[in-house]
Amino acid sequence: MITSTPPVLARTRDVAGPAMRAAVATLLPELHGPVHYHFGWADVDGTPVPGGGGKGVRPALAILSAEAAGAPAGAGVPGAVALELVHNFSLLHDDVIDNDRERRHRPTVWALFGVGDAIIAGDALLTLALEVLFDADAPGGARAAGALTRATSEMIAGQVLDMTFETRDAVSLDECITMESGKTGALLACAASIGALMAGGSDALVDALAAYGRHLGLAFQAVDDLLGIWGSPAVTGKPAWSDLRQHKKALPLVFAWERATASERRELHHLLADGTPTEAAMAEAAALIEARGGRDCTQSFADRELDAAFRALGATDLDCGVRTELVELAHFVVERQS
Amino acid sequence: MITSTPPVLARTRDVAGPAMRAAVATLLPELHGPVHYHFGWADVDGTPVPGGGGKGVRPALAILSAEAAGAPAGAGVPGAVALELVHNFSLLHDDVIDNDRERRHRPTVWALFGVGDAIIAGDALLTLALEVLFDADAPGGARAAGALTRATSEMIAGQVLDMTFETRDAVSLDECITMESGKTGALLACAASIGALMAGGSDALVDALAAYGRHLGLAFQAVDDLLGIWGSPAVTGKPAWSDLRQHKKALPLVFAWERATASERRELHHLLADGTPTEAAMAEAAALIEARGGRDCTQSFADRELDAAFRALGATDLDCGVRTELVELAHFVVERQS
């Protein structure tokens, strides 16, 4: 089912979008080519393209986070911009690391502009993100920069685990969750709490929002893992079976592995061996993963994490409007294309 | 002439070295392979190697900077560690970007471990650097993190200019100095001032030390540019004529270009055209650059910047011992292998 886009995304994009453009405009003009292309603001030759950009989930969370602390939406904007910049730093680098040639139905920056441009553009977005926070006219700016630095560090550690898992046969469920919590949960936890942090919200509020973001991140990643095997290329913009192709040890495979017999494990290992598996082998592996509960368990995991996110919100005394938007946003994030 | 290593480097290495090891030990074990190898602490297979590490100029500056503010050497250690980490983040990424397969007479990390490992290891060092400052038990930690973020951002901009210059025929002296000030000056300015910043030194002291570091960085880079053309591979650990090979627009070429006739410019352009120039063409280009004053002008530029660094120190009321060590360090940095 395709969930309709919640109004909060349009509202927060209107607030954060111009600030995002203004921050990127401070980069050297020599970087605008790959960066504007990456954001979907321009073609490869620099011609502006209407629309563009991702769904804006992280900026929306940062702005709702400020509003949760009783501040106006504007107080969440530096955090919104910083989170979007760090997220895109990670996309630029991960596409090189994972050798991904397509993202959002377009060639990736490294595939078009070269590896060097993708690396340096990513580096520039990461430092720009922190500069935006240090430069923000808010007492919590430096504290927010510290929180974002730690979240980024955890995200990088998650990516390292993801990379090393590719060369391993088996990964435990705990290891997989640690990896996904770092890769996706850390930054969503930061997004959901950074606005409150900058607006001087209580520690209890900041912690509750961070817990909401952390669980939401895990739910989101679980859905992403489902799409990584069973998602339609037309929808995901990635090749079919992309996670199996890349030897990813994501939740469906890890759940199935735990439930598989020794001979089924040998079969999975054989089907997904080094190099690029054949289409037939990936189809067979996907069927075996599904038969051993990998698909259902991952969906249940996503559902439980979404519930945990809502419970975290329940522990706080939130304005009703903000709570509703956080809930709508969470449903949108987790139910996309699944 | 080879200048003897000043005692300050051994003294500050003893203080910063263990803290550097401790910071790196907090990285995921999965990163230790490429990172320990990069620092020269281990072989490619992880076997520890005695010695290792660079000259330690940036850590020494950071520690002297704290001492300049009247603080003990230990107060400079978080800055020393952070600067060394950021410097090595840039080396890891620049080696990929510049396609350099050797550094310090050893294969580079990307050449041995792959591009992905070099990218993610660099990312991890950058965020670790900032975490070290945020975690430091010092009131100026967050301020220092802000200063390091800005310096890193400027360094990245310098690297961007360096990359884009490679595809250009000519670059003005001003453009070249802006590039080199960013690529090398920004981080040395930060190294020379971060200790004083964290120790609560006066703005005047912080500014004077930053100016010393900025000029020292330009002097250092000018010497590096000389070595990039006329340095012996046995000494530099890089191929002969490496800057010409890579179409770098460094000071010697820029000075010579300014003084060259139209036909000499055409000749230089022809000799150093796209692709990899022949050895004979690079030798001829180097001779022409030298004949047009590129070598002498660059050496004079380095001398002037070194003088300016000393003048910046003269404007402050420094402890005599610290001043002597800063001067010795500057001579060492600029006179190496030239």
Give the proportion of residues in helices of chain A: over 70%
Rounded to an integer, what's the Rg of chain A over CA atoms? 20 Å
- Read across the widest sheet of chain A, the strand sequence of neighbours is 1-2
| Content of β-strand of chain A | under 5%
Please describe the topology of this protein.
The structure is a homodimer of 338-residue chains.
Chain A: H1 7-25, H2 29-38, H3 57-68, H4 77-97, E1 102-103, E2 106-107, H5 109-113, H6 115-135, H7 141-165, H8 173-198, H9 203-230, H10 233-236, H11 242-245, H12 251-259, H13 262-271, H14 279-291, H15 294-314, H16 320-335
Antiparallel strand pairs in A: 1-2
Task: Please give a quick description of this structure.
Helix content of chain A is 72%, strand content 1%. Chain A has 338 residues and is mainly α.
Using brief descriptors, characterize the structure shown.
homodimer, 338 residues, mainly alpha, 16 helices, 2 strands, globular
